[in-house]
Amino acid sequence: MSEPIRTRFYNYHLDHNAKMVEFAGYVMPIQYKGITTEHLAVRNNVGMFDLSHMGEFEITGKDATAFVQRTTTNNVEQLEPGQIQYSCITLPTGGIVDDMLVYRMEDGYYLVVNAANIEKDFNWLSSQINEDVQLINHSEQTSLLAIQGPNSEQVMSKITDANLADMAYYTWVRAEVAGCEVMFSRTGYTGEDGFEIYIPPECTDQIWKAAMEAGGKHDMELIGLGARDTLRLEMKMALYGNDIDESTTPVEAGLSFIIDFDKDFIGKDVIETQKKEKPKRRLVCLELSDRAIPRHGYAIFDGEEQIGNVTSGSFSPSLQKPIALGYVARKKAKSGSEVSIEIRNKKVPAVVVKPPFYKDASHK
Amino acid sequence: MDIPSDLKYTKEHEWVSLDGDIATIGITDYAQGELGDIVFVELPAVGESISQMDSFGTIEAVKAVSDLYAPISGEVTEVNEALEDDPLVINRDPYGDGWMVKVRVSDAGQVEQLLDDTGYREILD
Known about the structure:
- The complex is a heterodimer.
- By secondary structure, chain A is an alpha+beta fold.
- Chain A is 21% helix and 34% strand.
- In chain A, the strands form 4 sheets. Chain A has a 6-stranded mixed β-sheet with strand order 11-12-13-10-4-14. In chain A, strands 15-18-17-16-19-20 form a 6-stranded antiparallel β-barrel. In chain A, strands 6-7-8-5-9 form a 5-stranded antiparallel β-sheet.
- In chain A, a hairpin with an 8-residue loop joins strand 12 and strand 13 (194-199).
- In chain A, helix 2 (35-44) crosses helix 7 (225-234) and helix 5 crosses helix 6 (204-216).
- By secondary structure, chain B is an alpha+beta fold.
- Chain B has one domain (8-106): CATH 2.40.50.100.
- Chain B contains 4 helices and 9 strands.
- Chain B is globular.
- The chains are: A alpha+beta, B alpha+beta.
- Chain A binds chain B through residues 30-31, 34-36, 226, 229-230, 291-293, 295, 314-315, 317, 344, and chain B through 36-37, 39-40, 42, 58, 60, 62-63, 65, 88, 91.
């Protein structure tokens, strides 16, 4: 492995006593003051994340729309410039190459992909081009800050003149932020209202400083990857590599809402058949009344029969109880189903609940 | 990093203090920092025996789970009940209110096999 990459905010993280860890080839802050404090700051107030490890691709050319339609499951023809959709890239087997956001630009598309998958996605998409399409990887030159929480608009409005009151969720604008022209969107991975700012190298310092100053007036906290994980888990937002991967399909993962069966895309046959015949397993939300915490890989049982595995598990700071995502056999996938999870050789009762775990988020 | 000089330590980041034949056991400041917010501790009941360097319980943090290893052998005489309601006290005060169990030791000489503060500091560096 080569030396992990530092984001352009690395020294700021150290200044704020972040605990740094290696993640997907980057050295990232996992926490500053503590996961619980940071988590609750985003739920109840506002927090800022460095997400510069995420990948950004630009797709242009005469046939960009046809290309993105074919390689992703959602329908990009529904998008007007300025709009965004959640989608995924699938293999001919129906397995998920990656999940991402698709931004509609005036002359093409902007894909925001998972850090661990940048190279894989780029190679896969490149191999699928057979028309007038240009695919450009902007990941290295693009820094990303997310400001998330019910009070995120108050912080954001101090550093931009853009009209935020009229800006809908899942839209983006090009506007000045802290004196720098950037693209930012009203999106996030927390369930809360929030913004994600895509920053060119020459603007990282001025935007960080302006955001910290504006945030300081609202007790904004810096948020690490630890709380990012608990926040997304409470919303049942899938984490690639844990809950979804090339061996899982969007139907199994409960992502049918991002599949458009009225268009053609890679893997459609397999996925459509699975949708009709119903998948053998489904990704479900599990709550435990015990205090022991289920973790990735733990076995899920129906009596003595193993019916699946936990894919993500944590203590939920908002609900103050252990929660998990996991795949279970379809017979036990209905909410209310009682199962058990093996934790240190003990079968702990768990119940399947309706998503999301946390119901009071400022954006659902 | 707080490493009191009057305690003995395991390589697994537990501490023990011995008062007569009663030993008090907890985890170190370093351990609580590495674990992050602690949400649950599974401890033996009063009357159970624990054996030096065997697992005597489990500690669950938001992000990770870790075994607890006994610095010394003995019979549990007291369990810190306050941890049930407020496990974060271990993060706040690992050497004080965050203690976990007290045991009546079977062989006080076992402490000789543990690290002193200097030795423990060395394994952290």
